[in-house]
Amino acid sequence: MRFDDTYSGKVFIKSHPNYEESKAVIYGMPMDWTVSFRPGSRFGPAKIREVSIGLEEYSPYLDRDLDDVKFFDAGDIPLPFGNAEQSLEIINNYIHQLLKDDKIPVGLGGEHLVSLPVMKAVAEKYDDLAVIHMDAHTDLREHYEGYEYSHSTPIRKIADVIGPKNVYSFGIRSGMKEEFDWAKENGMHISKFEVLEPLKKVLPTLDGRPVYITIDIDVLDPAHAPGTGTVDAGGITSRELLAAIHAIAASGVNVVGFDLVEVAPVYDHSDQTANTASKLIREMLLGWVR
Fold it and tell me: Which residues bind Mn(2+) (predicted)?
């Protein structure tokens, strides 16, 4: 299950050597074929792995160590450059195999469109799936400049599959008026600007349900994450995002998969964004994989 033909040889720190024995599987989705502003997120997965070597393996927040979690880093899925629809199909097929093997998928993006085939595959396996979405943008467009598949459309597409009432967005501070109107008219939960406090109110309502979580790094203020394709002022702090991850862990919600997308290292020569992303992944692994 490791993509040896395209893989750089670097793995996320403390990755387990054995796929069969691992509960979770990290995989990269190096795609930025539909971005509307700045490309470069296809380099995100490799950079997140590269800087993870600087992480401590122990989380003082959760009192757990990466040795406590068996996860396998499969490398980046080989995707055909520029072909969005075929890339989505390849990702979907790979996730179906992970789920068949009873693994928890842990995705590294890549633009946010790569989350769509993952969520669709997870929704096929788990009835009554709920999606938690943290982002600066609504991502609720039906199409973008005539294209059905775009980084602006994944949340609308998954809402059409599982129902808008099962999608919970947090930290939203940008989008078309029509997107906000559609969410309100169809009963979708959107928390504008904030993440932690509204999330805490929602989590008890998700008790016992399978939950997929997708996080766009641009939910953070550009001061905390400048290395992303579409920066948007007014975001949350990295401390609040960590607290949100820990709140989910403490809630006992059944997390059946998750991803972190839109890290574009070319715009952050200090690697601040990638380092933050690596720490977030560590906390998600330790908090959500049981």
Answer: 112, 135, 137, 139, 216, 218
Cα separation, 251 vs 222, whole angstroms: 29
pLDDT tens track for 29-84: 999 988 888 999 999 999 999 999 999 999 999 999 999 999 999 999 999 999 99
**How many CB atoms sit inside 10 A of residue 128's CB?**
13
Structure tokens given for 106: 């842990």
Residue stretches of the annotated binding site = 112, 135, 137, 139, 216, 218
Q: At which residue do the structure tokens 């862990």 appear?
A: 249
Do residues 172 and 138 lie in contact, with contact meaning Cβ atoms separated by under 8 Å?
yes
The Cα 42–Cα 57 span in angstroms is 26
For residue 52, count other CB atoms closer than 10 A to its CB.
24
Domain boundaries, the chain: 24-288
Please state the residue numbers annotated as binding site for Mn(2+).
Answer: 112, 135, 137, 139, 216, 218
Assess if CATH 3.40.800.10 describes domain 24-288. yes
